[in-house]
Specification:
3 helices; 7-stranded antiparallel sheet; alpha+beta; 7 strands; 205 residues
């Protein structure tokens, strides 16, 4: 099944967190991300216990975008993980793993980054899926495009979500790996097999 263009966080069993280590980690209490103002730090921007769905930042910046090559995006992955944990309202010690990522760019150029995470808090029997995105020049991540965005970027389970449930969550939030759409061209992306409870239903490339 095709997957689309945002960022997912889900809570799953610890066995799902395998190599590579750069795509996984542990949630920290009140994590701080370098280069981000106080009002845009993960805990502040998430607004737990009811995370806010707002678009923040227009995405225009100076200089070229970083080159994309290989299996991982050229991002601050620990920073992305911190936002994923915050939007999931995860406690310190919960485990998080990158489920998938993609980046699209148009002719302006404007690039949108998208990623999918898996985070688990089995002691509380709480598994939460969070979908995020950002304009590439921004260091912080969003979970929605505005108050009237029909997507549901956060979903909580009382069990470790299956591959089918994760796939359905991604599809419901507009994920795919189409080469081009709405004037944007896919410039990179991949699913991280180690984060899935079984083989992902669709691989990229």
């Amino acid at each position: 099944m095709l997957l689309r263009s945002l960022v997912l966080v889900a809570f799953v069993s610890s066995s799902a967190f395998a190599d590579p280590p750069t795509t996984s980690g542990v949630c920290q209490a009140n994590a701080k991300v370098a280069g981000v103002g106080d009002d845009q730090q993960p805990a502040k921007i998430a607004g737990c216990p009811d995370p806010m769905e707002l678009e923040r930042g227009n995405g225009f910046g100076r200089g070229p975008y970083p080159a994309i090559s290989g299996a991982l995006p050229p991002w601050d992955l620990p920073g992305a993980l911190a936002y994923a944990c915050a939007y999931a309202c995860a406690p310190a010690g919960a485990k998080a793993a990158l489920l998938g990522w993609s980046a699209y760019e148009d002719s302006r150029p404007l690039r949108n980054d998208n990623a999918a995470y898996v985070i688990s808090n089995p002691a509380a029997k709480r598994w939460t899926v969070v979908v995020m995105w950002r304009h590439a020049f921004n260091k912080w991540w969003n979970i929605g495009g505005g108050f009237h965005d029909p997507k549901t970027p956060i979903r909580t389970f009382d069990h470790a979500p299956t591959a089918a449930e994760l796939d359905a969550m991604l599809e419901a939030n507009g994920w795919d790996f189409s080469a081009a759409r709405d004037g944007f061209k896919l410039v990179g992306g991949k699913l991280v097999d180690a984060a899935w409870p079984s083989t992902p239903p669709k691989h990229f490339p």
